Amino acid sequence: MAWILFLVLVAIVLGLIGVAAKGLLYLLFVGILVLLIALALGGARFRNSGRRTTR
């Protein structure tokens, strides 16, 4: 879970740098991509953690 939060933090930082600095708009897109990956990983982990197998 810590990796997902770290990826979200990195995405926010990259997005802010991409918006603030001229000529670094690609960092905004990289930040958005990292955020989407983090959300996908978090969703997959959340979905799998709710299922418990009973024998």
Question: How does this structure look, described?
Answer:
- The protein is mostly helical and 55 residues long.
- Helices cover 80% and strands 0% of the residues.
- It has helices at 2-20, 25-49.
- The model has no long low-confidence stretch (mean pLDDT 84).
Radius of gyration computed on alpha carbons: 15 Å
Structural class: mainly alpha
| Helical stretch tally | 2
| Largest beta-sheet details | none
Topology:
Layout: H1 2-20, H2 25-49
For the structure shown, list the relevant keywords.
55 residues, 80% helix, mainly alpha
Give the gist of this structure:
The protein is mainly α.
